[in-house]
Amino acid sequence: MAEEATGSDESDDLRALLGEGPVPFPERTERKFQPWHRPRKQYVRRVQWVREIGFLARDLQLADRELRYLTLPGNDLLDIRHIAENICSPRDVKLRYLGFNSAAAPTAADQPELNAAQFSINRLDCIQPQSEVFPGDFRSVGEVRSVPWQRMRREGPFHAINIDLCGGFAVHEKDEGVPNYFAALQEILHNQESSDEEFLLFITTRMDDDNVDTEAMKTLLRLAQDIHDTCQKYSAAFAAAWGLQGSNAPVRIPEIVGASEAFMLGLTQWIIASGVSFGLKAYVRSFMTYRTGSGNGEDDIVSLAIRFKPDPIARPDAYGLAKTPTLALSTTDKLCDQSAIVPRRVRERARVDEILRNQADEFERCIAESSALLSAAGYDASLYRDWLTQVDGLNMAK
Question: Does the structural domain 33-353 have CATH classification 3.10.20.740?
Answer without folding.
Answer: no
